[in-house]
Amino acid sequence: MIDLHSHSTASDGRKSPADSARYAAEKNLKVWALTDHDTVAGLHDAALVCRECGLTFVPGIEITVNWPTGEFHLLGLGLTSSSGELKSLISELKASRDERNQHIIEKMAEDGIHTSMEELKAFCGVEQLGRPHFADYLVHKKIVKNRQAAFDKYLAQGRPWFIHHKGADLDVAVSAIKSSGGLPVLAHPLSLYVSWGKIEGVLREVISHGIEGLEAWHPGARVGEAIRLEELARTLGCFVTGGSDFHGEGVRADRHLGKTSGGKKIEDRFWDEELLPHLPNYNVDYWLK
To answer: CA distances (Å), 169 to each of 73, 112, 200, in order?
Structure first.
């Protein structure tokens, strides 16, 4: 059992990078990837723990990409370094995220809920805030019952506090991943919000920008949809990955480390037969320094 998509407190997960690695080891995973949103800040700590536990570590990132509908997230898997390109992109995305967060804080104030960036970071114990942190703060203040309710009432697209987060240009994101030794993989393709009638053409277009893999197996897809996406990946010449998109226990009822669509265990083949053969220079030495 493996997992090629998970998050820590370096972005919007519940466990620290080190504790996330320990949890993966406790769950007897063979291979585990940490893919925090728009940051590689947790990879050093995670790599150290994985070395101690004998767990094969896949250093990664999940980059937000500009997209007109839904969400476009690009995984970078097997990073062997953090290139100048990647560092520059992360810096730009952080600035965009900080600007978005400040606008959310201002909208909250207009509705009589006063906080600050500093208070939110202290409450959440993170340096990088995302909408889930705002949701957790609202739960803490007893304004909503749970994280999902916060999104449904305030934070989701179309809700009063939603602010669009400007993402990266696709070509820039692909280049930044490849220059850091990683492989660009389209995360949870159904989040693009493209109909099945149009999805092949859309995927063919985005793949032409240098994307090499498709995360066909993700809890957001039903088993039948995951099978269909895997077949489509073969048609388009992509390798296939599987992940849980785990953010921590209790965050989402359908997200469990090592499990994917339909609660199925993530098979070793997604590492041994799909991803690893495309990573001839795979190593984690850079992240252990």
So the answer is: 11, 36, 21
Look over the chain and give the mean of its residue pLDDT values, rounded to a whole number.
95
Collect all residues with Cβ–Cβ distance below 8 Å to 199 and sequence separation of at least 6: 189, 192, 232
Q: Quick check: 96 and 165 in contact, CB under 8 A?
A: yes
Gap between the Cα atoms of 196 and 178, Å rounded? 29
Task: Return the residue matching tokens 């493996």.
Answer: 2
Strand order of the β-sheet with 2-3 is: 2-3, 31-34, 56-65, 72-77, 183-186, 213-217, 239-242
Say if strands 183-186 and 213-217 run parallel, antiparallel, or are unpaired: parallel
- For 61-112, the pLDDT digits (tens) are 999 999 988 899 999 999 999 999 999 999 999 999 999 999 999 999 999 9
pLDDT 10s digits, 213-259: 999 999 999 999 999 999 999 999 999 999 999 998 887 888 999 99
Q: Which one, of 246, 157, 162, 235, lies nearest residue 201 by Cα?
A: 235
- DSSP states of 139-198: HHTTSSSSHHHHIIIIISTTSTT------B-HHHHHHHHHHTT-EEEE--GGGG---HHH
Distance CA 86, CA 83 (A): 5
Q: For residue 274, what is the DSSP state?
A: I
Apex 13 CA angle, 7 and 16, nearest 5: 90
Higher pLDDT, 17 or 124: 17
Closest residue by Cα to residue 192 from 22, 53, 12, 72: 72
Task: Please tell me the distance from the alpha carbon of residue 54 to that of residue 256, in angstroms, as a whole number.
Answer: 21
Q: Is the pLDDT of residue 127 over 80?
A: no
What pTM did the predictor assign? 0.93
